[in-house]
């Protein structure tokens, strides 16, 4: 049984995004995970256990964000060619999910760098895995929380990170902003130092306080003939 969402609007920097409360529903689950980026898929535990589905989509990396055991046997990796990683987390208002952000980013980036496809999933593909996916977009594409949320929502409408996870995403956004500001400050400092260095070099080449006419010298060569012997006087 899937769950329907009752929207709770959350304002971030004056823009609205939604978190939701789950209610029972008989909606049919998606048969395949949702493509978010060309190499990144978001889904549920059924997708992770469906080897045929993974094979069809070319998915060889699976990131499991649940408290349950892996959907597939990790010891089968040599036979299936799949690479699994599990981040143990529950969908609650007390779960610290941000502690896993960097670890999740590294795993997803490994798939991207090697030209592989990766599936991020939790139990229903709604809260935990959606939070990790949104966080990755924020870091990888330097998107705002609202823009990353809306992109994932447009690809997988059922997503609904709980309010605790939304708060952790907001903390990530603030951290990324500080990082961007620090980088800009460092770049400005380097540019200023380079400009000062260039100016000093220019002054060494041309100093207007020095009279250009006296600074220039013209090389001249004078040829003189010196007789090898003294002249002979004739009487």
Automatic annotation (TrEMBL):
InterPro entries: Dual-sp_phosphatase_cat-dom, Prot-tyrosine_phosphatase-like, Tyr_Pase_AS, Tyr_Pase_dom, TYR_PHOSPHATASE_DUAL_dom. It is an enzyme of class 3 (hydrolase). GO terms for cellular component: cytosol. This is protein-tyrosine-phosphatase. Keywords: Hydrolase, Protein phosphatase. Residues 99-157 form the Tyrosine specific protein phosphatases domain. GO terms for biological process: negative regulation of MAPK cascade. The lineage of its organism: Eukaryota, Metazoa, Ecdysozoa, Arthropoda, Chelicerata. The keyword Transport does not apply. Gene3D superfamilies: Protein tyrosine phosphatase superfamily. Pfam families: DSPc (PF00782). SUPFAM superfamilies: (Phosphotyrosine protein) phosphatases II. GO terms for molecular function: MAP kinase tyrosine phosphatase activity; MAP kinase tyrosine/serine/threonine phosphatase activity; protein tyrosine/threonine phosphatase activity. Residues 212-235 have a biased composition (Low complexity). It comes from the Eukaryota. PROSITE patterns: TYR_PHOSPHATASE_1, TYR_PHOSPHATASE_2, TYR_PHOSPHATASE_DUAL. Its EC number is 3.1.3.48. Transmembrane segments: none annotated. Residues 206-235 are annotated as: Disordered. Residues 32-178 form the Tyrosine-protein phosphatase domain. The keyword DNA repair does not apply. It comes from Medioppia subpectinata. Belongs to the protein-tyrosine phosphatase family. Non-receptor class dual specificity subfamily.
